[in-house]
Amino acid sequence: MFTESRFTLLAGFTVIAGAGPTGLAVARQLQRHGVPFRIVERSARPFDGSRGKGLQPRTLEVLDDLGLIDRFQESGSDYPALLVHRPDGATVEWRMDELHEPTPEVPYPNLLMVPQWRTSELLAEGVPIEFGVGVTSLEQDADGVRVTLDTGEVVTARYLVGADGGRSTVRQALGVEFLGSTHEDERMLIADVKLSGLDRAHWHVWPGDPGFRLGLCPLPGGDWWQLTAPPTDTPVAELVAATDPAITITEVGWTSQFRANIRMADRFRVGNVFLAGDAAHVHSPAGGQGLNTGIQDGYNLGWKIATGNTTILDTYEAERLPVAADVLGISTTLHRRHVAADPDAMRRDDPALRQLTLNYRGGPLTAEHRPTPGRVQAGDRAPDAPLTTGHRLFDLMRGAHPTLLAFGWPDTLPHLPESLPVHHLPAAEKQAWHAYDTQTPTLFLIRPDNYVGCATHNPQDVINYLKQIAQ
Q1: 137-to-4, 22, 46 alpha-carbon distances in Å
Q2: What predicted TM-score, i.e. pTM, was given to this entire model?
Q3: What is the spatial distance between Cα 404 and Cα 381, in angstroms, rounded to a whole number?
Q4: Cβ proximity of 120 and 21 under 8 Å
Q5: Three-state SS for 255?
Q6: Are 315 and 307 in contact, with CB atoms under 8 Å apart?
Q7: Exposed/middle/buried for residue 228 (C-beta within 10 Å: 0-12, 13-18, 19+)
Q8: What is the SS3 assignment for 127?
Q9: Residue 309, CA atoms < 13 Å, CB-side half-sphere
Q10: What is the pLDDT of residues 242-272, one digit of tens each?
């Protein structure tokens, strides 16, 4: 016999299936907006592997907005230079991408290495996760979703978010197609190990013929390394000793046999149910795009659920599906280079990988009203900039609210909601003016996820946009 819990009286009550980085990003957004939720995770305990270890610059900006950037920077490190151990005994040092200096507009320009278990741990702080509880089935109507849990409980919620991974039960229950392919012959061994006999200042790589034989990357925050190698039945310790007898494996932790699985759901929303992260798209690990795209799915979806506005909720799929398709194309191209043993397969200097240029231009929540837009347009990521007050624009935008940036506005603005922070930026704020590429009085309304929603010279456009995204 099952028990039934009804939460339909709580506006927006949401069940989140999956407590990985994507589901936790949704939960964090709902928390800050005051929306009630339950987050359930089928696994009995938190994930303990390093798997997706790279956080891209745009994701770091999301973490800044969530108030977590300091914790992540304390837990992470820049990627080390590669040290290639050639068969002739020589070594060659090089970087996948050069380290970039911060700029006024981009305060976090580099990939930050943080093991996935630590990313989940930091995102989970203060989030009440129910471990050992999974979703088995769902039914929905116009008013909400009845979610059956494997405990026998049936929860009635307004919304359900499927962030339950590539084998998503939620996606399968919806009957949504997962388009793409699985390459059974393209596999990789990944493991977390402790070892002795190797310096931690480099990511060590031993080439094979073709491709590579072994990789050992030091992970920040402890003594662990991430090992990568072609699939093998040889025990990890023997594999490493055969490559370099000076190295001794002292402990083996999380281990996985990765297979190339490159797929995307053909829909991200069905009624009151949403798919996000690996449940919506799975990537090759090449380029470090999958986990980052999932976190940004959750960041986009969370504030839209908080509005309870079905038209706004429709924009989740309209905005995130094309982004996921583009990112999937980038990671697949990099994966194919690895398979082909391209000499440049390890290069990561394509600016698109940093995800700062991803935008929603031309989308349903984009209102660009200027006759001659500048470099920064509606739909773009909102840039940062230092202010003469000692603060930064990111400080002004941080929080669960839209923000109005009024550049050189000479007149009194019409009545706006008291909940809307309005910041007047006079011409003396030269770096902010440069960051937003504006030379005349201009209003930029920044969405709660820190993308430019409306750019205009007319305050009425701001009022109309606020009505559009209102609860």
Answers
A1: 14, 20, 23
A2: 0.92
A3: 14
A4: yes
A5: strand
A6: no
A7: middle
A8: coil
A9: 14
A10: 999 999 999 999 999 877 677 889 999 999 9
